[in-house]
Amino acid sequence: MQCISSTLVPYSTWLREGILKPLSKGVILDLAVYEVLNAVWKEHYLLRHIDEETVKELLDVLERVFDVVTVASIRSEEASVFELVVKEGLTIHDATYLHYALRNKLVLVADNRRLMEKAKQYIETMSTRELV
Fold it and tell me: Residue 96 is inside which H or E element, if any?
C-alpha cells in the first residue's frame, strides 16, 4: 500500500527505532520538509529547548527520512487545491495533502481529525498508529 503522510513526526521516530517498513512506500509533500525544518529552528533558536548537538542529530535523522520517502509536489495544481479548500472548508495545507492523495489514489495517513473526516468521503485514510 502506498500512502501520503501529512506528518513527519512518526517517520523520524520509526527511523530511530529501526522501523523502516512504513517508510518504504511513503510519500510526503515538499512543504513538509520546510515545516519540519522550521519546527527544529523554532525549538532551537526561539524556544531554546534543544541544543546545537541535538539539532545536528535531528537533521541527520531527517535527512535519512527524506532519502527513504518520495518527496512530491503539487506544483501547477494550485487551482485544484484551492477548489478543494473552498468545497470542503479545509486549510491550504490540509487540502494539499488530500488533493495529492486523491490524484494519485493514495491512502492518506494523518492524525488531524478534521482532515480525516473530510478525506474519508473520497479516499481511504488511516492514522499513524494504524500504519505501523
Answer: helix 92-104
